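retry 2 of 3: previous attempt timed out while embedding tryptophan. Reduced batch size to 1 and resubmitted. Inputs unchanged:
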Amino acid sequence: MTDTPADAERTRVFSGMQPSGEAHLGNYLGALRRWVAMQEEYDCIWCIVDDHAITAGGDPVELPGHTFDLAVSFLAVGLDPERATIFVQSDVPEHTELAWLLNAVTPVGDLERMTQYKDKSQRFESVPAGVLNYPILQAADILLYKAGAVPVGEDQRQHLELTREIARRFNATYGETFPEPEALIGQAGRIVGLDGDAKMSKSLGNTVPLLAEPDAVWERVRTAVTDPQRVRLSDPGRPEHCNVFSLHRHFASEEELEDIATQCRAATRGCVDCKRILSDHIADAFAPYRERAAHYTAHPGEVRDILEAGAEKARTRAKETLREVRSRMGLDWRRALEG
Ligand code: TRP
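retry 2 succeeded.
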């Protein structure tokens, strides 16, 4: 046995990721690599949130494969079922049940104020209620396990603040039940996609897939937008205005970074060569992940067993919380039979 403290003494951490298929560079730099590190210190629960993925429709034919592929990515990068609980949200229906119960303490006005809701709802002529209620399900994910901390990106800060508000309201109305979870906002900042403009995101097609072979990594990285003012090879570049340079920061050593910046400013190295270096770094750094992913892809039964064991573990904790919540809300009519 190791000398890590027992689960009960460690802060419980929960985070979730939507299943949009194989993870990409942005998922890795913004979330997964941090999640891996946190497993050393915290009692971690990592969830593939497929119930969230259906809030705005979604493709029922694609979803199972996307969920499986994200699970493979999780395991490939080192999320570890021996140390953390890894599972699929829809395997634990207590998430959706708690979300329903939390509807009772969530003002519609709070939901309508969410910036993500405002953005997303514009895409619909008739907005699905799931798009509005999305943050209630997210609050349920977290509160179901009474998590103390939630690692998320800056874009989720508002949802976390709402989660805390929901916890406060529930506690005030029905008695002290939930701790207020703390948002652990990542330091990586927004990972900008290869278009050099928007957040790296699968739906925008501006990503580098995490498990791509070196050739495929290059196919993607070569399309990256660099400093827009550097038009010809002989134009001096501005690393601080180049997204390829921001990505270099995550992979190159200090010296190498210095070198890259100097050569860019002096126009002694062109953007294509510069992207080659980045592409090689990415492909090298992720080689062990590709190897592990190949193993899991060849043994899908192992992935199934891991996810099922994770769901089992999660469910035991989830049931406990729900029993408490139901009883606090009076959803235990048998109490009427007691003396
Ligand atoms: N909404 C989060 C995102 O899009 C995903 C998510 C769902 C989540 N439930 C969560 C994150 C609970 C943290 C905790 O990134």
